[in-house]
Amino acid sequence: MEITRATPADLLQTVDRLTLAFAHDPITGFLLQDGPAYRERLARFFSLLMRARIALGMPVLVARDGADIHGMVMGNFPSPPAWPDDIAHEWEDFERAVPGMADRLAIYEGLAAQFAPAAPHYYLGVIGVDPAKHGHGIGMRLIKMFCDLSAADGLSHGVYLETGEPSNVRFYERAGFVEAGRGTMGSATLWCMYLPHARDEG
Question: How far is CA 199 from CA 124, 125, 149, 153, in A?
């Protein structure tokens, strides 16, 4: 298994794996609303996020075994630039097509910002592994590689993320993250977690 930077050619396969990984995720379920066409909304959501981040040179990593992609992680570096206009316009169209999404996104972003560290940091926005490949250590390798990128960036003091899955809290704790705070979005709980780099501990 090799972990590499994602390219536009990886988009379709990676998004397919993410739609499987997030089929029952509380955060995307809250934002995009479970029900008819949820999988299609999920695919468009991840496609837009991945395309924007690749275009801006942000951290987008995939775990691949030959031609097969089994997982991915992506996020932002400190002070990310604005999205390219064409993708930003597509995102606006997407928000308008999902009733109430903009309002739910504001709730989510407000809660996440409440517990985000003040120091510049990397934001780990998405990590997902094909459910058929769970238990092989792929997720831990992806998160370690993402955290290593952050640690190598002199502007970053750590990595911040959120999760809505209680079982994921234990996974992130094993990777060194600690809870920074939590809140609720509808019926879901949002755990906000932070991993400070060694140079900032103590």
Answer: 19, 23, 15, 12
Domain that holds residue 156: 2-200
**Torsions phi, psi for 22 (to 5 deg):** -105, 20
Mean pLDDT per block of 10 residues along the chain (202 residues) reads 95 96 93 90 98 97 95 96 97 96 95 95 96 91 97 96 94 96 92 88 52
For 48, the token pair is 């837009």
Query: Terminus-to-terminus CA distance in the chain, angstroms?
Result: 35
For 79, the token pair is 């002070």
What CATH number did the domain enclosing 174 receive?
3.40.630.30
Positions of E strands within the chain: 2-5, 60-65, 68-76, 122-129, 158-163, 178-185, 188-196
Q: What is the DSSP letter of 87?
A: H
Q: What angle do CA 83, 91, 33 make, to 5 degrees?
A: 135
In this structure, are residues 187 and 34 in contact, taking their beta carbons and an 8 Å threshold? no
Tally of domains within the chain: 1
pTM above 0.70, yes or no: yes
Q: To which residue do tokens 């879901």 refer?
A: 188
Pairing assessment for the beta strands 68-76 and 60-65 based on DSSP bridges:
antiparallel
Give the C-alpha separation, 25 to 165, whole Å.
7
